[in-house]
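Let's inspect one such protein example.
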Amino acid sequence: SASHARVALGEHAFARAYAHAGMVRLDGEKMSKSRGNLVFVSQLLAAGHDPMAIRLALLAHHYRHDWDWTDAGLAAATERLTLWRSAAETAGGSNIGGSNSAGADVLVAIRDRIASDLDAPGSLQIVDSWAARAMVGAAPGSGPLVRTALDAVLGIAL
């Protein structure tokens, strides 16, 4: 921890920031190897789950908070992914380098949320809002830029 590193290294800080991750539970109990209640990504993939949906299920929770892995959470992430993919198609567009304010706004907002204590859930909400607008035609041409932003910043390939 920060205090141990400070004592060991003296005046110079070991790091400028420390991240304390929350625990992931399964059926109300902490996931752990000793309990034998781990959910492996390899098993989820073998069961046919989209790797992007698995990533979305993980990103839906802030890293520092405890949370529960559930089948419902994975199903919600799969639905979210399907919506985002439909929204990207509906929004269309062919020029990533063009001036598209809807796509650029999403990119800036995602970066801001990630820069604010790695707020991945906040980033997902930004994209949810964009997807709702895109599905009713209120974000034309923004599809390619949002796809690129999601892949580059969150690792979500649409």
